[in-house]
Write a structure and sequence with these properties.
6-stranded mixed sheet; 1 helix; alpha+beta; 4-stranded mixed sheet; 2 domains; Immunoglobulin-like; 12 strands
């Protein structure tokens, strides 16, 4: 039991308001950290784990270009054609260059997890941080991978061109949208 004390009733109300504000802040940070942790677990245990083959639809490919140390942003429109709600929890596979260099990207999903209503659509965005120490080939390296969706056989191909000569001034650009 919490006892709120104060000289005036306003002090007790202010104390309660502050307590609720702190609890709300804690709950929102706990939620964000828990989702981040679960996304990390999903990346390790999903079909995008190293050593598995991810089949990509040949006509669906998202392309981006950036420089080492920057970031790129890709968006995918998800359409729920079912009569029930669909869970959308995308994951990004490892990215591999033509020479075999493998990169496990740091990807931030917006939103990281969502429910899509029946016969509705939603856009999922991923921001991919490009490591500064990743080797580039002449004139530029293309790393290929896929965005996979748990419970769905379809995936979206990803091709990221990493080039030293690409100058973006640290800006994140919105790329084309794929639909699955």
């Amino acid at each position: 039991m919490i006892h709120l004390t104060g000289n005036r009733p306003d002090d007790a109300a202010e104390s309660l308001r502050r307590l609720l504000e702190l609890q709300n802040d804690f709950a929102s940070r706990l939620y964000a950290d828990t989702l981040s942790y679960l996304r990390g677990l999903q990346g390790v245990s999903s079909s995008a784990s190293p050593g598995t083959v991810v089949l990509v639809e040949s006509e669906t490919l998202l392309e981006a270009e950036g420089q080492p140390g920057g970031s790129v942003r890709l968006a995918v429109q998800v359409v729920n054609e079912q009569s029930v709600y669909a869970v959308v929890a995308p994951a990004l596979s490892s990215l591999v260059s033509e020479s075999g260099v493998t990169w496990f990207p740091d990807a931030t999903w917006i939103p990281p997890y969502q429910l899509v209503e029946p016969h509705e659509s939603s856009v999922v965005t991923v921001e991919i941080s490009l490591p500064a120490a990743l080797p580039t080939e002449t004139p530029s390296a293309i790393y290929r991978g896929a965005i996979v969706f748990l419970g769905n056989r379809e995936s979206v191909g990803v091709a990221i061109r990493l080039s030293e000569s690409t100058v973006r001034n640290g800006a994140v650009e919105q790329q084309e949208t794929a639909s699955t």
